């Protein structure tokens, strides 16, 4: 079997298959796991998925920062603050991790399995077909540009939102993208900062949390199409605009460390879902099947749960010779099992930006009403109930014995 893409879904699925006796070749286009942006927040559902996979030791060895509290601000004023060690989190607060380090750890674990093969720096050029069924991939080595064909009983596309496997399979996707993009950057973290904060008001949203390298990760959500103006004004100008939207303590910190901004870049917000996940001999999972909005940090967690469900249905078939019909049904079952959760999470992700970023006449009054409501314990309890889907997942995902 061939897995294309060594992100969270591809790396962990390869590990699960190899340790259970399935021959698997994992292909990664890049020579390392460093990226401008990697989803790095593990919700309780993501931590639980890694534990089920037997990767808790890898997680424990990964640089991380455990989020201890969260606070929400409207127009610079705190609405409420909550501990993340509450019952709602089942004693497992979100963890900001170094995704490159996590993936390296997963691959090292998989390399201990004789059934596992890993190739870096290879780009998939095309899929191989025979009688309407995918039978392998053609790859090109980025160093010497040589090409060769890798045969496979099954090709799994886990190669992200710009998946070549998705394109080669001709899978059409429904766009669900909210009208927003995100400017990401890091600054030194204040010593007393112990979790995450969300700042909203006047059509702005800024997320700030302490991350694994003891910096403050900032995500400034902007209306789609406005980045060109931001870029032309320069970093100093948008740091000042951010400072105008947050609490006095963070505003002062931003102005003090405006020259210390690290790796600022634009993350284009994409949310979509393919209308069909598979063709004979191939399937897409993770972002290749359903790119997730940045809202509530769901991408890595959903991808890990995809890997578990895929392994549950593929291991019994790939560890022995299975008929094409049985494999086709298994691929369809994986999609059917994962689709309810993906649909629910994407629907939940779509609503907040519409309210938070609105600059219509009703936007600010609505935010003020929401602010007053969030001060009521009964409303916060209801919100915690709705947040359970983000924290723990929508459906039950258990790794088969």
Would you write up a description of this structure?
Helix 1 runs parallel beside helix 4, helix 2 runs parallel beside helix 9 and helix 7 runs antiparallel to helix 8. The relative contact order is 0.17. Strands 6-5-15-16-17-14-18 form a seven-stranded mixed beta sheet, covered by helices on one side. Strands 8-2-1-12-21-20 form a six-stranded mixed beta sheet. The chain has a three-stranded antiparallel beta sheet with strand order 3-7-4. The chain is globular, with a radius of gyration of 22 Å. The mean pLDDT is 89. Strand 10 and strand 11 form a beta hairpin. It is α+β, with helices and mostly antiparallel strands. The longest helix has 33 residues.
């Amino acid at each position: 079997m061939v897995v294309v893409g060594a992100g969270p879904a591809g790396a962990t699925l390869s590990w699960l298959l190899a340790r259970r006796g399935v021959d698997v070749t994992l292909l990664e286009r890049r020579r390392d796991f460093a990226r401008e942006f990697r989803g790095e927040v593990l919700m309780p559902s993501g931590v639980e998925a890694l534990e089920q996979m037997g990767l808790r030791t890898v997680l424990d060895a990964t640089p991380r920062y455990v989020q201890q509290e969260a606070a929400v601000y409207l127009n610079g004023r705190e609405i409420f603050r909550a501990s993340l060690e509450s019952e709602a989190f089942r004693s497992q607060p979100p963890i900001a991790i170094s995704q490159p380090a996590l993936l390296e750890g997963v691959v090292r674990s998989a390399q201990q399995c004789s059934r596992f093969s890993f190739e870096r720096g290879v780009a998939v050029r095309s899929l191989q077909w025979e009688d309407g069924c995918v039978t392998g991939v053609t790859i090109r080595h980025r160093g010497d540009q040589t090409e060769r064909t890798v045969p496979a009983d099954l090709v799994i596309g886990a190669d992200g939102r710009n998946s070549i496997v998705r394109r080669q399979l001709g899978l059409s996707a429904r766009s669900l993208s909210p009208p927003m993009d995100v400017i990401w950057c890091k600054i030194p973290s204040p010593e007393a900062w112990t979790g995450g904060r969300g700042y909203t008001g006047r059509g702005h949203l800024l997320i700030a949390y302490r991350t694994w390298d003891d910096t403050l990760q900032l995500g400034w959500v902007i209306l789609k199409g406005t980045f060109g103006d931001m870029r032309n004004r320069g970093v100093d100008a948008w740091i000042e605009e951010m400072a105008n939207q947050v609490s006095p303590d963070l505003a002062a910190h931003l102005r003090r460390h405006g020259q210390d901004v690290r790796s600022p870049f634009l993350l284009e917000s994409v949310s979509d879902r393919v209308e069909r996940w598979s063709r004979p001999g191939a399937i897409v999972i993770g972002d290749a099947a359903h790119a997730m909005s940045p809202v509530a940090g769901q991408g890595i967690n959903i991808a890990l749960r995809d890997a578990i469900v895929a392994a549950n249905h593929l291991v019994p078939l790939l560890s022995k010779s299975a008929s094409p019909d049985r494999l086709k049904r298994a691929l369809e079952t994986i999609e059917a099992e994962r689709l309810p959760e993906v649909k629910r999470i994407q629907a939940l992700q779509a609503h907040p930006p519409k309210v938070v970023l609105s600059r219509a006449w009703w936007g600010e009054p609505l935010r003020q009403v929401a602010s007053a409501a969030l001060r009521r314990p009964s409303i916060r309890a209801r919100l915690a109930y709705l947040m359970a889907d983000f924290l723990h997942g929508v459906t039950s995902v258990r790794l088969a014995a």
